[in-house]
Specification:
Keywords (chain A): ATP-binding, Nucleotide-binding, Transport
Number of domains of chain A: 2
Protein name (chain A): ABC transporter ATP-binding protein
CATH class of chain B: Mainly Alpha
CATH architecture of the largest domain in chain A: 3-Layer(aba) Sandwich
Structural class of chain A: alpha/beta
Protein name (chain B): Branched-chain amino acid ABC transporter permease
Strand order of the largest sheet of chain A: 6-7-8-3-9-10
Largest sheet of chain B: 2 strands, antiparallel
GO molecular function (chain B): branched-chain amino acid transmembrane transporter activity
CATH topology of chain B: ABC transporter involved in vitamin B12 uptake, BtuC
Radius of gyration of chain A: 19 Å
GO molecular function, one term (chain A): L-phenylalanine transmembrane transporter activity
Radius of gyration of chain B: 23 Å
Helix content of chain B: 55-70%
CATH topology of the largest domain in chain A: Rossmann fold
Oligomer: heterodimer
Order of helices and strands of chain B: HHHHHHHEEEEEHHHHEHHHHHH
Chain lengths: 252, 400
């Protein structure tokens, strides 16, 4: 039984079958990549996992509980954090404040009215956030407005915001999309570091095969909304069906 | 001081001084001089400054922090006023129960309005709040006449029960008071040609405003305030960070509704009547103008904006054609008439035009409002001083 179990998930958008009978099992403490050509349903699948979309049929179980019908913040409280394709951070806030917010979410749950305390007096939260920023080597930028960071730093900050919650499962939606090769390699290193330093499960959606083969321990290939194969990276590389899907040859 | 950091304490002290010495500061011109008409240090106007200051501070907690633009905040002020007058009719002329009930009733009403309106964001939220406010306004005018006394407005009368107080004193309605201290009482101080008025009602309102301002600073610096800024910045990220944004926005909405109620209650305490026009959309629009003009999202901005607009409304509108002729009397006749003709549309009843132009200029050139203007001036001075001789003498900057 994996940490995340997706069973027979179907999702239709009008006449388009975005997901058809998707089965997926992500084992604990592994890096699981989901790859596939454009329009294969990778993002739709991810949105079903975090509560943005609700599948038409099927079940999504996380840690023994169903996530279906729960709101995004509830799913996050269960232990799933998500990194977006374009970094989603609080641009008007400082870097430190950006990381403090998930710390509050982790300590206090979905809502707590601290209207008369002072942010900087919350020593425990400040310490937690600063430790995290040190981990991702951004501590010297703690008072910078997050909106003025470079793209790579924004990505780094977003990961810090997710990691400081100590999620059981980290979902990454094309973490290197639109990045230069150097930034991509930095991100790969960062993810490897993260994986090595703590027990964490990651599910990565990615286009870039270089990233996938550097990180993944299991790979699921999606094509036209259905999983084609699921195997180790070595086996996937030479798999005829995968090459077929990517090269766009017809099945018939 | 009081759990504030140095910068905020300084700002708070500055605001305390400004409000406490307002009767002096707003009366810079001697009685009888030509400029005396620019004096704003009379009780009625000073009360309005601080009361609308409270209204704008509260509005800024919602709009400045979360970015939710409510176009119906006057409804809470109006509801608070009605509740306050009823308290004075039924219970006592002491202002404390009236003010408290105003805050409570406005708070409850804002829970209802907020719960429904906050289902949408952006322009739809604004429209929903506007709809609620106009609904309240129309109801107060027509259907709810037994409670609101319709067009005439709710007033006190000699045969009100006032079970904890007295219905009448020597054949007239007793004055609103704070444990016997009448709100209308004033002490006058004549110094040379100057006449300063210290009014009980003003000082009560000023103290309440200072408390309201202090609470607002604490909210701005609290984790709750940080969450509200995060809502404005990126609501989607906040949701995916495990925080439920709805209770946060609703709390901000209700707090700002209670501030509006407080302002309504104080209005009643100063002048015990309430009319439906307080809830009209122009009144809601006015507080939006105040906040943006002063600087949305800053601490001091709304107070500045409120003072600015109320000053214009009351002082500029008083200037009439004959005063203009007096001013330009030194010019040759033809030129005098031409100049008066040109200036006239901007004063008197035309003060809205002046205000509108100033508002446009501020929004275009100072998107951060008057506070940003102050900050720019401060920076300019500091740079000049640095290049001159003494670095680090540091002009203090109360802004933000």
């Amino acid at each position: 039984m994996g940490l995340l179990e997706v069973k027979n998930v179907n999702k239709r958008f009008g006449g388009l079958q975005a997901l058809g009978d998707v089965n997926l099992s992500v084992a604990e403490n592994t890096v699981h990549a989901i790859i596939g050509p454009n329009g294969a349903g990778k993002s739709t699948l991810l949105n079903c996992l975090v509560g943005k979309l609700i599948p038409d049929t099927g079940s999504v179980m996380f840690d023994g509980q169903s996530v279906l019908g729960r709101k995004p913040h509830e799913i996050n409280q269960m232990g799933i954090s998500r990194v977006f394709q374009t970094p989603e951070i609080f641009g008007d806030l400082t870097v430190l404040e950006n990381v403090m917010i998930p710390c509050f979410a982790r300590r206090d749950g979905a809502f707590k009215l601290h209207a008369f305390e002072t942010v900087m007096n919350e020593a425990e939260i400040v310490d937690m956030a600063e430790a995290m920023l040190t981990d991702v080597r951004m501590i010297e930028k703690r008072d910078v407005h997050a909106g003025s960071l470079s793209r790579g730093d924004k990505r780094r900050l977003e990961m810090a915001m997710c990691l400081v919650q100590q999620p059981k499962l980290l979902l990454l939606d094309e973490p290197t999309a639109g990045m230069a090769r150097a930034d991509t390699n930095n991100t790969i290193d960062l993810l490897k570091e993260i994986k090595a330093s703590r027990p964490i499960t990651m599910a990565i959606i990615e286009h870039d095969m270089h990233v996938v083969f550097s990180l993944a321990e299991r790979i699921t290939v999606l094509a036209q909304g259905t999983p084609l194969v699921e195997d180790t990276p070595e086996n996937i590389k030479g798999h005829p069906k995968v090459q077929e899907a990517y090269l766009g040859q017809s099945h018939e | 001081m009081l759990g504030l950091n140095r910068k905020d304490s300084l700002l708070f002290v500055v605001v305390i001084c400004l409000t406490m010495f307002a009767p002096f500061l707003l009366n810079p011109f001697p009685e009888g001089s030509e400029l005396a008409q620019f004096n704003a240090g009379y009780p009625d106007l000073m009360q309005r400054f601080v009361i609308f200051g409270i209204f704008a501070i509260g509005f800024n907690i919602l709009f400045g922090l979360t970015g939710y633009l409510s176009f119906g905040h006057a409804a809470f002020l109006g509801v608070g006023s009605y509740a306050g007058v009823w308290m004075m009719k039924l219970l006592t002329m002491n202002v404390i129960p009236a003010i408290l009930i105003s805050v409570v009733v406005a708070g409850l009403f804002s829970v209802l309005v907020g719960y429904i309106s906050l289902r949408r964001s952006g322009i739809y939220f604004s429209i929903l709040t506007l709809a609620f406010a106009q609904m309240s306004f129309s109801l107060a005018y027509s259907v709810l006449t037994p409670i609101t006394n319709g067009e005439t407005g709710l007033q006190l009368s000699l045969n009100d029960p006032r079970i904890l107080g007295v219905s009448e004193v020597d054949g007239s309605i007793p004055p609103a008071n704070l444990f016997g201290l009448s709100m209308r009482d004033s002490t006058e101080l004549a110094m040379g040609n100057w006449l300063f008025t210290f009014n009980v009602g003003y000082y009560l309102s000023a103290v309440v405003m200072l408390i309201a301002f202090y609470v607002a600073i604490r909210i701005f610096r609290s984790p709750f305030g940080m969450m509200l800024r995060a809502v404005k910045s990126n609501q989607q990220r906040l949701n995916y960070t495990g925080l439920n944004t709805k209770p946060y926005t609703l709390a901000a909405f209700v707090i700002s509704g209670m501030y509006a109620g407080l302002a309504g209650g104080l209005m009643v305490a100063m002048d015990p009547l309430a009319g439906a026009e307080r809830m009209q959309w122009t009144a809601s629009g006015e507080v939006v103008l105040m906040t943006i003009l002063g600087g949305a999202g800053t601490l001091i901005g709304p107070i500045l904006g409120a003072g600015f607009i109320k000053y214009f409304e009351n002082i500029f509108s008083k200037i009439n054609e004959s005063i203009l002729h007096q001013w330009f009397a030194f010019l040759p006749d033809g030129l005098e008439d031409a100049l008066v003709f040109m200036v006239y549309p901007f004063i008197g009843k035309g003060w809205h035009l002046t205000l509108g132009i100033m508002f446009m200029l501020v929004v275009i050139f100072l998107p951060g409002g008057l506070v940003e203007g102050g900050q720019r001036l401060g920076r300019l001075f500091r740079r000049r001083r640095k290049t001159d001789t003494k670095p680090g003498a540091g002009a203090t900057e109360p802004a933000e």
